[in-house]
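assembly run, all chains below
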Amino acid sequence: MITLKYFARLRDVAGKGEELLDRDELTVAELLDWAESTYPGFGADNVQVAVNEEYALKEDTIRSGDVCAFIPPVSGG
Amino acid sequence: MKPFEIVEEPIDVKKYMDYVLHPSAGAVTVFTGNVREWTYGVRTLYLSYEAYVPMAEKKMAEIGAEMEERWPGVRVAIAHRIGELQISDIAVVIAVSSPHRKAAYEANEYAIDRIKEVVPIWKKEIWEDGEEWIGAQKKYPAKGVE
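ok done. output:
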């Protein structure tokens, strides 16, 4: 199981803040493709993924037990 | 208080100033980012901030470490508020002390620039006729965000 977290605009698009994905292993790129096809209008081109609270590269591998956060463009300050 | 923290209550600036002050510090710069009512002719009623709290605090601490590396001798505290903020409320405070003033000014500006780049915090603007999550439209970087 992989934990997925949604914030800001993406929480609205997904209609939830968190969910579990029943996969053992996938890449960040595959996760973004999954999100784009699961939630129309996700806008994965502008979304980064943090794996266990660290920004990940598209080719990085996500494994069961990891916590992944979809990070839309930030606007703090 | 923690030197790098996300808070839900109004920010007490003096707490962070006091934290960075020590006998070798000859200068303290304090930056506050405040809620602005008018942006390019559009009136904001209030803002709502959200954060991925554990990662945001970690990223702010990393920014502090970057500052200590670039400007040896600086001491840093950063706090960002989340939840609903009214006009003129303080959203972020950055306090930096250094032996001499130049480093305190430079390091402080560096901190706010980095916060806007890498810290997972989001702002929703609420207007009279609608609301929207704000975010620069950036493409996914090939190398992630450093």
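Strands of chain A lie at 2-6, 18-21, 25-27, 48-51, 54-55, 61-63, 67-71.

The helical segments of chain A are 8-14, 28-38.

not gonna interpret more than that til we talk
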